Amino acid sequence: MSFLRVSWLVFRKDLTVEVRSFEILATSIFFAVSAVLFFAVAFVQEGRALDGAAPGILWIAVAFAGTLALGRTFERERQAETLQALLLAPADRPAIYVGKLLGIVTLLVTTEVVLLPLIAYLFQAPLFARAGWLAAVLLAGTVGYCAVGTLFAAMLVRVRSRDVLLPVLLYPITIPVIIAGVRATSVLLEPELDVAMIRFWLSLMAAYDVVFITLALWSFEPLMTE
Amino acid sequence: MSDPSGAGELDTLVVEGLARHFGRRRAVSQVSFACRRGSIVGLLGPNGAGKSTLLAMLATLLRPTSGTIRYGSLATIAGGAGRTGATAADLRRRIGMLGHDLFLYPDLTARENLAFFAALYGAGDARRAAHRALERAALADRGDDPVSSFSRGMRQRVALERALIQDPPLLLLDEPFTGLDDRSVAALMRRLSGLREDGRILLVATHDLDLVEGLFDEAVFLRDGRVVELASQPRALRALYQGVMARGRS
Amino acid sequence: MSKWFFPASVACALMFAVSPILIANAPFESTMGLVQKISYYHMPSAWIFLIAAVVCGVASVRYLFGGGARHDRVAWAAAELVVLFGAMALVTGPLWARKAWGVWWQWDVRLTASLMGWMVAVAYILVRKYGGPGSDKLGAGLALFGMANVPFVYVSVNYWRTIHPKTTVVPTLPLSMGIPFWFSFAAFLLLFILLLRMRVRLEEQRAELDAVYLSLE
């Protein structure tokens, strides 16, 4: 049984479950949109948005929606103890992690696609002016955030107070990737594109992704055995 | 189905001095017993006696604090020292488990559930494996309905076939009779007897002896994580059980 | 408790009692004046904060990869000391910064990284306290990722601005300032070792008590 095949099976299974109800996607999008609307009420006055607010608001909404999606995804695996069933299978356990990670990244990227036009309109931010770069920044940041989140959410399945502990574990660790995401998005909104700067932030995020996914793959097995 | 994979290497399951502590709580302590292939061993005891913890250790989901589990000549797990012999994957492939919860995705259909797990266990043709499993569960006509629309008895049948999807020589069942009506209990008992005839080792944890008298070849009585009685006489289990329970109360 | 513990505790108390006198007698720094004296406590607590974080991280990784419960106890004890010494550094720092920079806080790389590290330790304690069974592994995972996080915090924040004084000034200190500095560092280090030993010992006794309790039945 190859590693990638197990990941693919888990990913496809998660997608099938989600497509049947759209529960996680619908609630995450609703949550993220509500957060953005709150920010709009607070920071847009007389039709003028606060300068430089858009990148921060985008990433805060992504982080919050991500926490929600992570919690719900693993709540689903807990309901009928199916996470135990996955761990019982003679498959590579890190491959199961990768499958879950792919599913959550897909959910969050879809949420971002809905958020972008809303933020661009409400905060008068030219987010689509450099769409290619923005896509790269969002993907790199989302993967890094979810890489840490998937590992901790999986571990929290067997812990009682998992809902409150997920943000407690996740936020201090993912601050650099959120900083990099906010900075990189700000660079993209400048009238003149500073390519060197955007390259720097992107490579920082890529390095973060590589290091944290490697660490997660390496520690998933010992962390998941009780 | 007559020759479960790896059955040759799994003639016996021997547990010696097995213990698992959670901090100050002793979930399982000094448990020893042995099972042969072609037998059904009952793990009996009230709720909280340590049956589920014991099964989780046998399923490799939980590490023992001390003691050993010997899976025939295939592998050995020792508390502290870890596993020797077969790889974790090879060992897990030979263990089927039906947990207290169903281990099924309620939003997926029975067919999707079975096909997913068949593929995860490395079946060449997962669709065919799922189809055969559905036939064995006598649910071929309901295969494309979501599991959440099933009755408890139907779910349990799918869950059992899921646990058997890779044809394991060792089958662990945690309270499989809970919530079933009389007909489903009778059907499940017939199915389990059939699996015994195939030469498997079955371990069935239950707290309800009324339902399963006559099914077990041997019985291990647990109370507060310890073995209080080992019985190899399938008859008179009830009297023994009542005796054990009464002793515990006094 | 080991034989050295009581005399060492007394020595540590004496050192802390004497240190204000040494610090008071040290010369005033030319540009900062009186405020600079806070660095005699600020820098040692910040260094111990770092040492405790490294102890916690290393012990966690060793626990995660097959080490015994001993490593876990050290990690937990060290995490609590990260919070304690980190709090000292994070309180004394702004007191100085208000005078030197005119603001209480700057999003400077050292400050941000310290705050992040301190938050990871607080998260560690929250997890251990409220996580229930299995929280030992969670804590170890958090410490592992927290350690890996440090360089990223550094690089990302460094791209803004750094105004925090460099620690390379320490070896160049004149003797009159170096002696009180190293003296208080020694006092803080001793305090750290004593507290760590005491805290680990507490957990050891708790484990022993559990073992006794288990064997009683």
List keywords for this structure.
heterotrimer, A: 226 residues, mainly alpha, 8 helices, C: 217 residues, 6 helices
Quick rundown:
Chain A has 226 residues and is mainly alpha-helical.
Secondary-structure element string of chain C: HHHHHH
| Global Rg of chain C | 19 Å
DSSP E strands of chain B, number: 11
Shape of chain B: globular
Structural class of chain B: alpha/beta
**Tell me, what's the shape of chain C?**
globular
Count of structural domains of chain C:
1
Structural class call of chain C reads: mainly alpha
Low-confidence stretches of chain B: none
Mean pLDDT of chain C: 86
Distance between the termini of chain B: 47 Å
- Tell me the quaternary state: heterotrimer
Measured as a percent range, the helix fraction of chain C is: over 70%
Can you tell me about this structure?
The complex is a heterotrimer of chains A (226), B (250) and C (217). Chain A has helices at 3-21, 23-43, 53-79, 82-88, 93-122, 131-156, 162-189, 195-224; strands spanning 44-45, 48-49. The radius of gyration of chain A is 18 Å and the shape is globular. Helix content of chain A is 83%, strand content 2%. With 226 residues, chain A is an all-alpha fold. In chain A, helix 2 runs antiparallel to helix 3, helix 3 (53-79) packs antiparallel against helix 5 and helix 7 packs antiparallel against helix 8. The longest helix of chain A is centred in the middle third of the chain and has 30 residues, at 93-122. Chain B has a domain at 105-167. Chain B has eight helices and eleven strands. Chain B has a six-stranded mixed beta sheet with strand order 7-8-9-3-10-11, sandwiched between helices. In chain B, strands 2-1-4-5-6 form a five-stranded antiparallel beta sheet, with helices on one face. In chain B, helix 3 (110-120) packs across helix 4. With 217 residues, chain C is mainly alpha-helical. Chain C has one domain (39-216). Helix content of chain C is 77%, strand content 0%. Chain C contains six helices and no strands. The radius of gyration of chain C is 19 Å and the shape is globular. The A-C interface holds A 148, 151-152, 155-156, 158-161, 164-165, 168-169, 171-173, 175-177, 179-180, 183, 200, 204, 207-208, 211-212, 215, 219, 222-223, 226 and C 64-66, 116, 119-120, 123, 126-127, 130-135, 137-138, 140-142, 144-146, 148-149, 152-153, 155-157, 159.
